[in-house]
Structures are given as C-alpha cells and as structure tokens.
Write a structure and sequence with these properties.
By secondary structure, the chain is an alpha+beta fold. It has one domain: Phosphorylase Kinase, domain 1. Helices cover 22% and strands 33% of the residues. The strands form two sheets. The chain has a five-stranded antiparallel sheet, covered by helices on one side. Strands 1-2 form a two-stranded antiparallel sheet. The longest helix has 16 residues. InterPro entries: Kinase-like_dom_sf (IPR011009), NEK_Ser/Thr_kinase_NIMA (IPR051131), Prot_kinase_dom (IPR000719), Protein_kinase_ATP_BS (IPR017441). Pfam families: Pkinase. Keywords: ATP-binding, Kinase, Nucleotide-binding, Serine/threonine-protein kinase, Transferase.
C-alpha cells in the first residue's frame, strides 16, 4: 500500500502509479487554470513552459511529457519522490495535471535558470550559493 503525499489528500493506494497520479481528480486542460507566458526549455521527453496561475497570479513552471507506458513508468518515481520533498532550496512540487495526451507536472518557478547552465558558464559554486 502506498500513501499519497499530496497536500490535499492522505489516501492509500495499491500501486505506485495510483500514488503518483491522483486519479480522483478529473482530467482537465491546463488552460482552465494556467495561462501560457512562454516556453522556457525543451528536452528529449517534452518541454517546459512558464505559466501564470489564474487563481493566485503566481508564475509556475509546467513540464509537459507525452503520455505513454514508457514515460508514465519512468516519471512516476520522480513524481512520488518530488511530492515528498519539502526544503527551501528545492523547487516545490505543486501538482500533476493529466491531459488526454500529456502529463503536466506543475512546479514552483525559479527565474534564475537551470543549475546546470549556471555551473557550466560560471564554474563551481561556493558554499553560500
């Protein structure tokens, strides 16, 4: 049995997949809650977009991954682990939105860019950074 660490629920699930994705929530289209601002990145599995939450007016980053068995299984562990992390220096997980074609992982937006790019251009970080 798995326990969801979502902020809204403390449900028990039989599989890690059920724990990773809150199937009690309806499949929605992200445009119902989030407004597109701009594309902020892309990779082999999908892309990241800067979006604005229509309810809170806060910016969020949404990572879009095309749905499919291979992606769903690979991503479920990331989602389970990310949901349980709570630290001021780690990007906060918000929610997962299931669309008919994509998984949309909603996260806190960090305007400073990717850590990898920062290290590549400026070298190693000092302890204070």
């Amino acid at each position: 049995t798995f326990i969801s660490s979502s902020q809204n629920t403390n449900q028990r699930f039989e599989t890690p997949m059920e724990a990773a994705f809150d199937f009690s929530r309806p499949i929605i289209h992200e445009s119902e809650r989030y407004e597109f601002v701009r594309k902020i990145g892309a990779g082999s599995f999908g892309e990241a977009r800067l979006m604005k939450d229509k309810l809170s007016a806060q910016f969020v980053a949404i990572k879009y991954l095309e749905r499919g068995d291979k992606i769903d299984k690979k991503v479920q562990r990331e989602i389970i682990n990310h949901r349980s992390l709570r630290h001021p220096n780690i990007i906060a997980f918000k929610e997962v939105i299931l669309t008919p074609t994509h998984l949309a992982i909603v996260m806190e937006y960090a305007p400073g860019g990717e850590l990898f790019d920062r290290i590549r251009t400026a070298g190693k970080l000092c302890e204070d950074e």
